[in-house]
């Protein structure tokens, strides 16, 4: 086990009774007391490192990793979900008894144990239950990265500390743990899934201020059964994000020994696997490799999941439409059944139209027609009549209008081919006038 894994406690010389005239019985009692004290203060290997504490993990293990070592220090839990100490009954033990139920688009608080360590990245994925042990699927469906040392909070004594802080003692007598918020991507249809947690890049000797940061800890994994129900229309795609999290040292990067999951697949991450040997990798302030150079991972697509409209078929419809400027900001809502006059002036020299949807099934896009002619098919939210401009930082203005002439803009959601869906389109009457 690496040097990070050793006890953070020590017993001073005052813990040993050295009295020349002490009776033998007293010496024995003192020795027993010493052994008991050491056993009490030393964290067991199985309680070290990090695990998911909210939502409830599918496993009781607190250190799902691969590590060398003898006795109780070795582990063979290569992820992406635990393979040991699995819950057999109760909440969080199976897809039929999920740890939590979420809606598409819901903001969710997640928590994990610090357990005397610092630094690295945390990666979040949501995968179908049947793919829970497929690392490639977890990588493909990873939707959010952040700093592992985000949202530090102090635990209250008693059950709260036992659940969230476990054996953390870096700031004793108060234990600390970490938390952040994730948002459930809207690409997931209703169903049962696994939320996965991966921690990598933990720093050696708990020294995040040392440069370069050194590797020692391996990759850690945990998972939770969750259910996704409702939350409106299933979006066609979602682009993964990196956000360091609250209370982190830097607003756009993390302190870590590596920036890729798998580089420290086996702990200790040192040369020759020697706990006291040189680190295999050195790091510092960085972003996950997927985001280096302002890159982003490929989008997660709803078409990757099995089709499954609700019994009797689903429905998709246009909720509302808005006049928006070319920066995408809504100016006012369009009304049906009346003529909407759009006046162009210095405050609004150019414009486009945005639509919002309602429904309970996957959407493949939104079609915009003007006087019966197709103008645009938008495949990813937000839904606009015009496409992004060349810079990607704004929208092209709508140029297909004729001043002082009424036009009919019909907006229709598009369902996934082959799915039984009731479509509810809307038509808006618009006239554009120039300010005098």
Task: State the main characteristics.
436 residues, five-stranded mixed beta sheet, 3 helices, elongated, six-stranded mixed beta sheet, 27 strands, mainly beta, single chain
Q: How would you describe what is shown here?
A:
- Helices cover 7% and strands 33% of the residues.
- The chain is mainly beta and 436 residues long.
- The strands form seven sheets. Strands 4-12-10-6-7-14 form a six-stranded mixed sheet.
- A hairpin with a 2-residue loop joins strand 22 (363-370) and strand 23 (373-378).
- The longest helix has 18 residues, at 24-41.
- The radius of gyration is 28 Å and the shape is elongated.
Total beta strand runs: 27
H/E element order: HEEEEEEHEEHEEEEEEEEEEEEEEEEEEE
- Based on CA atoms alone, the radius of gyration comes out at 28 Å
Distance between the termini: 78 Å
Topology of this protein?
Blueprint: H1 24-41, E1 52-54, E2 66-67, E3 75-76, E4 100-102, E5 107-113, E6 121-128, H2 135-140, E7 142-147, E8 153-154, H3 159-164, E9 176-183, E10 191-200, E11 213-214, E12 220-228, E13 237-238, E14 241-242, E15 254-256, E16 282-286, E17 300-301, E18 314-324, E19 330-333, E20 339-344, E21 352-359, E22 363-370, E23 373-378, E24 383-384, E25 406-415, E26 421-424, E27 426-434
Parallel strand pairs: 4-12, 7-14, 18-26, 20-27
Antiparallel strand pairs: 1-5, 2-3, 5-9, 6-7, 6-10, 8-9, 10-12, 11-16, 13-17, 15-16, 18-19, 18-21, 21-24, 22-23, 22-25, 25-27
